[in-house]
Structure formats: C-alpha cells, structure tokens
Write the structure tokens for this entry.
Amino acid sequence: MKTIFIAGYARLPSGMAAQNVYDTLTITAEVDKKYGVIVSTSSTLATKHGRQYVERLLRGHSLQDGVEDLVEHTKNHYLGKAGNAIQSAIQDLSKQYEQYKRT
C-alpha cells in the first residue's frame, strides 16, 4: 500500500452542533507515503459543507511542506466557532505525520 492513514484531534468549543455529538474534532487523512501528499480527508464537523471545506483545504497539500500556511488560511478564512479546533487538529495531523516519518 502506498498510503498511510493518520488522524489529528482537537477539543471543540462548547455551544457547537458537533460538540453535542463529539467532544473532540477529528480530522483524518490518507497520505501518500513517499511525498506526504494528502490524498483524501474526513472530519467530524457537523455540517457537510464544513467537512467539504476542510477536504478542499487539505487535499493535495504535502505535509512535507509543513502546515503553517494551512493554519494561517484557516485563521483568515474559516470564521466559524470551530476555527481554532480545526487549526489544532491540522497541527496534530502534522505531528502524527512527523512521528510516522521518524519510524
């Protein structure tokens, strides 16, 4: 298999629709082993539109390039309550990838 499956987690703020179902936001990604490119993603955001937004943001990005630009994009363009949680989950996703690369 040429891909790995990783997940990033972050605590959701109170008062969100998704928080009624989950305490944490999870972003999962299928990542190309060789180049670190995100092939596909999923998240536990409550709305389909939110899940699609995260998918479009992450798909095609190489984790070998870091995630600073993704976090910055989210800060500037995702104006919902889950913004900080998305940023944290992306950073955790990156940490999981870096941990994989060290093994």
